[in-house]
Amino acid sequence: MKLNHVDMLQTKGEKFTADNVSYPAPPPPISACFPGDAVPFGSRDSIRDKILEALKKDNVKVLGFYGMGGVGKTTIIKEVAKRGEAMNLFDEILMAVVSQDPSIRKIQDQFASKLGLSRDEVWKSDTDSVRAGRLHEKLEKTGKVLVILDDLWKHLDLEAVGIPSPDKHKCCKIVITTRRKDVCDQMDCKNNSFSVPILSEEEGWHLFEKMAGVTSAEVRHVAIKVAKECGGLPLAIVVVARALKGKNLTRWEDALCQLHASTPTNVEGVHMNVYSRLRLSYDYLDGEEIKHFFLLFSLFPEDSNVSIERQMRYGMGLGLFHQGGLGGTIKEARKRAHSFVDILKSACLLLDGDEEGTVRVHDVVRDFCISSIASKGQQHVFLVKPGWEFTEWPEIDCSADYTAISLANSNIKQFPCGIDSPKLKCLVFDGRNQEVNIANSFFDAMKELKVLDVSWVRIPLFPPSQGLLGKLRTLCLRHCSLGEMEMIGDLKGLEVLSLNNSEFKDDKLPKGISLLTGLRLLDLSDCSDLMIPYGILSNLSRLEELYLAERFDKWEKESEDEIYIENSRRRERYASLSELKSSSHSLTTLMGIHVKDASLFPKDLFFPELTTFRIQIGDGNFYHKNYSRSKAGLMVDFGGISIAEDHWICSLMKRCDYLQLSQMGNMKRILYDFNRDLKTLVVEDSDNIEEIIISEEGEAEFPQLKCLELQCLPKLASFCNVGKSREPMQSQSLFTDKVRTK
User: Fold this and answer.
1) Which among 284, 316, 476, 567 is least surrounded, fewest beta carbons within 10 Å?
2) How far apart are CA 12 and CA 477, in angstroms?
3) What span, in angstroms and rounded, lies between the C-alpha atoms of 331 and 735?
4) Angle 319-320-325 (CA atoms, 0-180°, nearest 5)?
5) What is the pLDDT of residue 535?
6) Cα–Cα distance between 39 and 234 in angstroms, integer?
7) C-alpha to C-alpha distance for 8 and 12, rounded to whole angstroms
8) DSSP-derived 3-state class of residue 2
9) Is the pLDDT of residue 734 over 90?
10) Contact at 8 Å (CB) between 583 and 541?
11) pTM
12) pLDDT band at 19 (very low <50, low <70, confident <90, very high)
């Protein structure tokens, strides 16, 4: 009976996977999403306190506050949310950024993420109305709810989103922020709306002094005048102060002259002084490369979380990183891009994104980029349109000489015969999973195009005119369904090719890619069921970074023939690991490799420059959450086979921040050296292991180690043997005072 019970439990256990054993941890409280405290100001504190008092009243259902762009409305509402949470006024606080071009679906997703609904796969495919019903039902059962709608530009249908009417659901309260007072009236908060004024002169100077770090007496008297020129607008104060921080007296005096002489731009909802102050901050950026890099962030829709990696790949194509464009590595270009981002954050021209590896642009700053820099200059002229406004390609002003065009979330299904923009260098088109037809002559006049990003569409045929794109360096075809595209081999100058999350004809990577011998980055991540034909990887001898689908394992044994005979039938050969030898000395990044049969891995395949990788060897069914987050992760199931100390696997083991080993045969010890950046170490199922590490130094330190798992190691005597002894060890304390972790 017990054996039958065990069999039953094992059968049930096999149905569980890593995805359904448990639910993900609940989202953090809203206070964790808004780290740090705002600079205290009497004018702001009084508004915050009035809103909190109003929210305590049963008869107040909808509140609003309005003010010009850059006056600090979002900062105030975040403080309201944090105080409301601390005071336990609500059971749930939800916040969504609406923006000028509201998307019901985007607002729903922001709420669903907080409520846990987005974890349901069905949520993604549901219609807006079905999602609204689910949100409505969830909120009605939640109790006291505060819904914050930030940056509202016009009336929003709450029922269409799924927000219960405050009149019907007495526990639901709504707060909106807007630049226009009439929006407060439209949302029925006329009697409960608050105006957010500019800062007083004293408050403005206090903020300016804090941001600029004014310490010099001779600079101080000029700084006070500069602060006044910012007109009490927090956004203008912050960007100007950061731009001038650490500058000498001459630069301060020059800035004051510029602010006196500048011609303000009056845009709806934006204070007339803000743009000229942003212009000063932009002008003070050191170098044309970082200025151009900054402007690229305006190509994306309002309030987008913009991937820094994506921007780096654009910058590579446009030659914005000297190291990357003049013989340096992509790794160096990425460092340069992150350095640019840090500088732009310090200047308050970029904000932290809501997702790791992303940033956001304040909508006022984005508008400034488009209307004041990239529409009137000669070096950069951008056309940025929300694509959902069009069903056909927008009319192009031939006299504008656009250098960049961006159409996001577009419904366009037919590309025109051509675009008369001979100076166009960057073209970005994001669709809505619709099929698009690209005219054969579409690219004919784009002789200067360097970056092309066409994503979220189905493309049955790539036109032959793409062969005219002799200067194209970066091509992104992300989340696409791609038909015939062998003509891609004509793009001889291509260096960056992003095909992540895309599907291919017959699930095979186009052979034309083998002709792209100058390719330095190939991204095939999340390309499910992909097969790579033999001969493609071996031709990419300059490849520095290769991204494959997680645990890509479709590798074949090395053979001299390109055709395999299998069951008396000829079939095409696919990629072997030996093909990586051609680029082994240039590869710095190799992500997604899984080799089930260790014999497929050539013994003479070394990667001397490899620093970023995720490689799994063997058919072990092990997995650890830290592996997917590692920069350098290695899993090896030796299958009972021992390896020599000079084996290539050992060289990778010494570079890992994640290392998982099992079934190590007769091996008694593992490492004779170790990586000080090691964060996760898992050793398991090895009958003969006596010690994990031998250190020839006086002490062994593991300053980054966060996770250590040792299991099924019956002969383990010590974690680390400090000294040169290689003799069998006697049982002792697993960790001695010679082993240090933090």
Assistant:
1) 567
2) 42
3) 38
4) 45
5) 93
6) 11
7) 6
8) helix
9) no
10) yes
11) 0.78
12) very low
Would you call 621 helix, strand, or coil by DSSP? coil
Asked whether 424 and 449 are in contact (CB, 8 A), the reply is yes
Strands 632-637 and 612-617: parallel
Question: 591 forms bridges with which residues in the sheet?
Answer: 547, 614
The DSSP output letter for 373 is I
Mean pLDDT of 239-248: 87
pLDDT of residue 18: 45
Neighbours of 665 (CB within 10 A): 14
Give the integer Cα–Cα distance in Å for 508 and 530: 6
| Strands 739-741 vs 700-702: parallel, antiparallel or unpaired | parallel
Return d(Cα 465, Cα 444) in angstroms, integer: 6
| pLDDT tens digits, 524-570 | 999 988 999 999 999 999 999 999 998 888 998 876 555 555 555 56
Positive or negative CA dihedral for 462, 467, 469, 470?
A: positive
More confident residue, 252 or 33: 252
At 27 the pLDDT is 58
Written as one letter, the residue type at 449 is L
Partnered with residue 576 across adjacent β-strands are 556
Count the alpha carbons within 13 Å of 187 in the hemisphere toward its beta carbon. 31
Q: Name the H helices within 173-307.
A: 181-186, 201-212, 217-229, 234-244, 249-261, 274-283, 288-296
| Phi–psi pair at 733, nearest 5 degrees | -60, 135
C-beta atoms surrounding 683 within 10 Å: 21
Which amino acid belongs to residue 388? W
For residues 358-368, average pLDDT: 85
The pLDDT tens digits for 27-49 are 556 555 555 555 667 778 888 88
Question: Do residues 502 and 525 make contact, with C-beta atoms less than 8 angstroms apart?
Answer: no
Residue at token pair 């954050």: 345
Q: How many CB atoms lie within 10 A of CB 611?
A: 13
Q: Are 91 and 217 in contact (CB under 8 A)?
A: no
pLDDT digits 0-9 by tens, 615-635: 998 876 666 778 888 999 999
Give dist(CA 98, CA 23) in Å, integer.
29
Contact in structure between 438 and 466 (CB atoms under 8 Å): no
Contacts 24+ apart (CB under 8 A), 29-36: 29/85, 30/81, 30/82, 30/85, 30/93, 30/95, 30/114, 31/81, 31/82, 31/85, 31/86, 33/354, 34/78, 34/81, 34/82
Instruction: State the Cα–Cα distance between residues 181 and 195, nearest whole angstrom.
Output: 8
Tell me what pLDDT residue 266 has.
Answer: 53
The answer to whether 139 touches 133, Cβ cutoff 8 Å, is no
Cross-strand pairs, 96: 149
**What's the whole-number average pLDDT of the chain?**
83
DSSP string, 484-508: E-GGGGG-TT--EEE-TT-B-GGGB
Distance separating alpha carbons of residues 415 and 353, to the nearest angstrom = 32
CB count within 10 Å of CB 56 equals 11
Residue 432 CA to residue 440 CA, distance in Å, equals: 22
- For 438-492, write each residue's pLDDT tens digit: 988 898 888 999 999 999 999 998 887 666 788 999 999 999 999 988 889 999 9
Beta strands in 113-216 (DSSP E): 145-152, 172-178, 193-195
**DSSP string covering 695-707:** E-SS-EEETT--E
Q: What is the pLDDT of residues 270-301, one digit of tens each?
A: 556 677 778 878 888 888 999 999 999 999 98
Q: Taking a C-beta distance cutoff of 8 angstroms, is the pair 164, 172 a contact?
A: yes
| Strand segments (E) across 472-555 | 474-476, 481-484, 496-498, 521-523, 545-552
